[in-house]
């Protein structure tokens, strides 16, 4: 009996905190609001950062329930700045509980910020309703009474000596932003590395409604080996390589993406004598997608994809009386899909990188002012323009120069601060950090080209219609932990009489833990993935296919877009158990991203 099994993912992780119940006879003590405010604003020395962040969320929740308006300022700051931590949502709800009208401006700002998560905007709107303020309407603020200022006694006026004034040279207006600028290098650490000025190529000026963008070229090496057996006098060689390109732009009303991939697997075996074997598998594919957003989160989507697969096998036997065997097979797919969906998943890694830079400056007490939206975009354009760089030398110098020019950094960074900034710029664990939820249903029309196989009627070819389901989820639980998931399904429809209508569904979930050294050095990523899939061929001689799998891996990062990954895998597929391990090397040739 033929079984069709698919490996996909499921992972569920949950924690249940212990509940401490106090005796009913003990009277509740008043909350130490000043102490809680201090705990939220400053990490105690006896706690590491991750433990403090966990406890800070509980303390922020208690501040909101305290009804003490002294907590308004600190909760307003958390709500405004903590956009990637759940403590920001806790603070938004807490401001509604406090009932202080002074929190209205920051809540209105959050409610109107389209770059914030939908849940955060909804929480801010609900909090404003509790304050009796409508979103977009600022409550009147009483101006403080100003005391009259006494005029100082004026000294007798003396005519100043006139100096000749040189007119400043005024540059003509520039209609478009330059693609290359000269950034003045800092005069402190590393100032003599690139001279007084550093040429820096800027990335594109993204439209005002651009939410995120990415541009990536990746080369992956699965396995490659060359060997010679001197006893059997046998030479062997095999390799498995892949390359891909992806470009995506997410705007408020329009999103589009396109890309392609190539995958080659080949092997050669030549023992002593006339016998030899050669084989190769080549797969080339391309894809594109366009989304048009209408109402809140609703969109129409169109997708296109094409793929070409070539299999080659050649065997020369040892016996000259046996004919050599050679087989070449080709398969091609071309399809389009149209439908609709809801939601959006964005790559916010580039924004997280800016946030971590600001955190480094704040911890070292050299932050002149917070990084605003203008500086954030300028930094990301600098990084985008240098996305092909293989080292972080110029990236570090231009980033520090941009921060100094904007007044974000105070003075010249010392060796320790410079090292920590470099660690953030080289951090590959900030790539592909997804946030949001997305689901869509489409109708697909495909045309399949296959070689004739008279003895295998199960091979589909020609027109095939399907219903396709896709879903995705991403959440940044903290700066060191995230969770993502996907789900898919397909069902063949409109099949001819006596033609099977197979179906399949699957889901995958992954949790990642990002590890760092004492000064922000990215060490590696520990990931745990689970998969689950069920399928049916809709024929009398096959049974329901079922697969369940898990994978535990660790990625050691060589630079921002390249790393080595070792993983252990296990799977149960329709009654069979598989256990294995794999080592992968990925090299990023080009990696750029943008997120508001």
Structure, explained:
With 596 residues, the protein is of the alpha+beta class. Among the domains are: 33-131, Leucine-rich Repeat Variant, CATH 1.25.10.10; 215-341. The protein is built from 10 helices and 16 strands. The strands form 2 sheets. It has a 14-stranded antiparallel β-barrel. Strands 1-2 form a two-stranded antiparallel sheet. Strand 3 and strand 4 form a beta hairpin. Helix 1 (33-41) packs antiparallel against helix 2 (49-65), helix 2 (49-65) packs parallel to helix 4 (86-98) and helix 3 (72-81) packs antiparallel against helix 4 (86-98). The longest helix has 17 residues, at 49-65. The model is unreliable at 1-29 and 138-198 (pLDDT under 50).
Task: Spell out the key features of this protein.
single chain, 21% helix, alpha+beta, disordered N terminus, Leucine-rich Repeat Variant, two-stranded antiparallel sheet, 14-stranded antiparallel beta barrel, 596 residues
């Amino acid at each position: 009996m033929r079984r069709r099994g698919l490996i996909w993912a499921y992972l569920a992780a949950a924690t249940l905190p212990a509940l401490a119940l106090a005796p009913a006879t003990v009277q509740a003590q008043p909350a130490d609001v000043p102490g809680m405010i201090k705990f939220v604003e400053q990490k105690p020395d006896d706690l590491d950062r991750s433990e403090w962040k966990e406890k800070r969320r509980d303390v922020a929740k208690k501040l909101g329930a305290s009804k003490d308006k002294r907590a308004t300022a600190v909760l307003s700051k958390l709500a405004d700045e903590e956009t990637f931590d759940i403590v920001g949502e806790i603070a938004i709800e807490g401001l509604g509980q406090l009932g202080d009208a002074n929190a209205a401006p920051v809540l209105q700002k959050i409610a109107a910020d389209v770059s914030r998560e939908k849940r955060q905007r909804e929480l801010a709107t609900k909090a404003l309703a509790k304050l009796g303020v409508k979103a977009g309407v600022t409550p009147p603020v009483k101006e403080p009474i100003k005391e009259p200022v006494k005029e100082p006694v004026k000294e007798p006026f003396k005519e100043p000596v006139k100096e000749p004034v040189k007119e400043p040279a005024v540059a003509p207006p520039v209609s478009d932003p330059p693609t290359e600028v000269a950034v003045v290098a800092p005069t402190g650490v590393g100032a003599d590395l690139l001279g007084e000025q550093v040429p820096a190529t800027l990335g594109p000026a993204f439209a005002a409604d651009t939410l995120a963008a990415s541009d990536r070229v990746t080369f992956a090496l699965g396995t490659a080996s060359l060997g010679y057996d001197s006893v059997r006098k046998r030479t062997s060689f095999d390799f498995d390589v892949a390359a891909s390109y992806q470009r995506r732009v997410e705007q408020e009303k329009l999103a589009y993406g396109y890309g392609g991939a190539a995958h080659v697997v080949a092997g050669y075996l030549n023992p002593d004598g006339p016998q030899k074997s050669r084989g190769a598998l080549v797969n080339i594919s391309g894809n594109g997608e366009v989304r048009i957003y209408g109402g809140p989160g609703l969109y129409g989507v169109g997708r296109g994809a094409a793929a070409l697969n070539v299999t080659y096998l050649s065997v020369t036997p040892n016996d000259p009386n046996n004919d050599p065997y050679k087989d070449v097979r080709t398969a091609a797919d071309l399809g389009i899909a149209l439908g609709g969906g809801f939601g959006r998943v964005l790559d916010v890694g580039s924004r997280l990188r800016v946030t971590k830079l600001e955190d480094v400056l704040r911890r070292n007490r050299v932050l002149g002012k917070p990084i605003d939206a203008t500086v954030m975009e300028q930094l990301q354009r600098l990084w985008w323009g240098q996305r092909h760089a293989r080292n972080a030398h110029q990236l570090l110098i231009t980033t520090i120069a941009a921060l100094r020019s904007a007044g974000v950094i105070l003075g010249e960074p010392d060796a320790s601060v410079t090292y920590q900034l470099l660690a953030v710029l080289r951090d590959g664990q900030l790539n592909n950090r997804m946030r949001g939820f997305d689901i869509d249903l489409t109708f697909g029309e495909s045309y399949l080209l296959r070689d004739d196989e008279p003895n295998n009627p199960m091979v589909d070819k020609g027109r095939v219609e399907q219903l396709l389901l896709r879903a995705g989820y991403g959440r940044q639980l903290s700066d060191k932990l995230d969770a993502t998931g996907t789900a898919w399904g397909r069902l063949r429809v409109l099949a001819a009489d006596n033609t099977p209508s197979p179906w399949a569904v699957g889901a995958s979930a992954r949790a990642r833990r990002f590890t760092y050294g004492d000064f922000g050095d990215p060490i590696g990523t520990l990931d745990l993935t689970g998969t689950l899939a069920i399928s049916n061929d809709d024929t009398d001689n096959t049974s329901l296919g079922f697969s369940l799998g898990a994978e535990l891996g660790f990625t050691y990062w060589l630079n921002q877009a390249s790393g080595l990954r070792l993983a252990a895998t296990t799977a149960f597929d329709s009654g069979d158990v598989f256990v294995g391990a794999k080592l992968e090397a990925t090299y990023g040739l080009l990696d750029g991203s943008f997120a508001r």
